[in-house]
């Protein structure tokens, strides 16, 4: 599995993690440059494979699962409260509520298809659309994802999303209106406390150099994704 780094655009002399943060937050006035692979070697209907090898259609999430208040969390795809308790790292996807498991499955199927357009019905539109940037997003969300990818067809960003959704996860704010299931768990776990095996998992997403930079910054700031208990895909963002 290739290891992906933070955008190479932000790795020149004198550029800091703060520059990464501002750029990904949309504060530089332009969309983020395409993500580069590390130099380290290392229609609307989605389909799934059944056990006999034939194809079966997987239904899209029920639109009624969307938050009627619109737009939660309103741009707050920030890191978990560093002063709060560290949540348990989970790997058992059977623990996910059915709507969450369903949306995760649809995202993974879309990523594995290699077709960026298959994310469109999952992202949705309007105030309940999946948040893709910490700053304002104007225009087509699929075009935004394609432009954020290191290749012209968007397969790199699909690979990153796939790695995110296959990682361990955390369950945040259970029993509250802000309850979320978030991938990968690095979003909510102090980076300096990662075990050796957890660092191996992290290096599937970022380089060792990125890890040291993020430790200095104080948070994991690469891509993460969240789904509500009702199965709404809230965000897929990078930055802080």
From TrEMBL:
Q: Where is this region: Disordered?
A: 39-84
Q: What is the recorded name of this protein?
A: Cytoplasmic protein
Read off the lineage from the record: Bacteria, Pseudomonadati, Pseudomonadota, Alphaproteobacteria, Hyphomicrobiales
